[in-house]
Every structure is written in C-alpha cells, then in structure tokens.
Specification:
mainly beta; 4-stranded antiparallel beta sheet; 6 strands; 41% strand; globular
Length: 109
C-alpha cells in the first residue's frame, strides 16, 4: 500500500512566523471515529509518496471524532503553522469550529 504525500507547505516558499498552511480532509469510512494524520517532511522539492527517498516522519496526530452519524460528510481542517523554532499542527472540525487536537512538533535538523 502506498501512502500519497499531500503537500501543505512547499519547500523554498517564503513563510512568515505563525503563517498557517491548511487542507480539508474527510474520513475514509462512514463509521470511522479515529482519524490519523501522519506529518512528513523532505528536503526534496517534489514528493509523491510518503515512502519516497528522503521522506521523514515528523509526527503522528490522532483525532477522535464523535459525529460518525454524519457518515463521510465530516470535513476536518488540518493545518500547520510555522513558528520560529516549532511547528503547530491543528485538526479542527470545519462544521462546528471545534478544535480536536493541537500539538507542537519540533523539527530537528
């Protein structure tokens, strides 16, 4: 099984402190109550799969949802905000605004 890499922030982009990069994601199964976001990074300018050479796992964020009665229609905004020395990952329910999870990730180079 290949995991596709969904790029939120492009290497080489000018980024302001606390600038947010986000995308909308949906459950894979209607009754899915745990959604996992694997956060990868690479020094490459192009990446297609998480298994590509140079890809590194930065962290894993798991989100528990309680609205499985909505089936697949449960948009989750996943965002990364780049601070001076840290990256803040946030998963938010797009329908209600509820923040499911907010975690600080540290990139060690």
């Amino acid at each position: 099984m290949y995991l596709y890499f969904h790029e939120l922030a492009k290497r080489g982009s000018n980024v302001k402190v606390d600038q947010k990069f986000s995308g909308d994601f949906y459950p894979i199964r209607p009754n899915q109550d745990i959604i996992t976001f694997n956060v990868y990074y690479t020094s490459k300018y192009e990446a297609k799969y998480c298994s590509d050479p140079g890809m590194r796992l930065l962290g894993v964020i798991r989100v528990k949802t309680y609205d499985t009665h909505l089936g697949l229609n449960r948009p989750i905004e996943f965002s990364l905000a780049f601070g001076k020395v840290e990256i803040k990952a946030t998963a938010k329910n797009k329908s209600t605004g509820e923040i499911y999870n907010e975690t600080t990730l540290e990139l060690t180079l």
